[in-house]
Amino acid sequence: MNTRPSINTLTAPLVERLVEQADELRLAVSRQDNGTRIVDAGIQVPGGIEAGRRIAEICLGGLGRVALHPGGADAGWPWELAVSTAQPVLACLGSQYAGWSLAHGEGKGGFFALGSGPGRALAGKEELFAELGYRDGSTSACLVLETDRTPPLPLLDKIADQCKVAPENLTLILTPTTRLAGSVQVVARVLEVALHKAHFLGFPLEHIVDGMGTAPLCPPSPDFLTAMGRTNDAILFGGRVQLFVSGAEAAAEDLAKRLPSEASADYGQPFAQVFKAAGHDFYKIDPLLFAPARVTVTSLASGRSFRAGRLNAELLERSFS
Prior knowledge:
Oligomer: single chain
Helix content: 25-40%
Number of strands: 12
Strand content: 15-25%
Strand order of the largest sheet: 1-2-8-7-6-5
């Protein structure tokens, strides 16, 4: 029996508040022909940093906090996002991770986006949910899509059907990476990126007890590749994460050594250049690259903390400027 909270139920009040304050947040809300609610966070409207911060908390399934703080002396950029959650595995991997591939049509006229947010746990289309042992049962669903287009109606119907909710109870938040809200909600994935790499490395998810992370707020760009590169670089070269883990101390030390982005053979250039060198194919990039710059892993069994990685102000400056 799943006794963990319903992340869609927890998120619903956050979504409603976002909709109620859409004008203040420079968002636009509409209903499609099937009743699905669309929140435009940067396509036809400006959106903004506060909208992105709230959308990031929605992505975390109502289980996390995202805050803006002045950057530290070693950050190199004036502001950073701080992310924390008492349930890092469920919040980050069960909700925030962009793991649901959504597509309709082919070629230039086709639509493709990766879905993140609590609605993923209703559909359960990814093998990850079997590993997490989690499925939601809410009657409402919310997904966040990094896209500059409204999904076609047949895809909206398909999403509602797979989430097992009425279309009018489905909300999609659209966040182009080239706009402020979009860049904020991507940078706020700094903790999620660490958990995803820990999972990739085979570290037991049940041993990750708590976590927090920070990353610099990157400037957006009207060019998609530049914008996408900057959001990745904010984490790869400026992200800091601390994980609190159970289990053997040696496993915590090993995780710390292997977790930072600099452990990858592809480390050393701004992400846009790495992406270009890979022929614009994410699957040709070393998956070990996707990680925070600096990590601390604290063993709850011994109380010792292990640190690895480094902030790279030079590469951040090259990317952001």
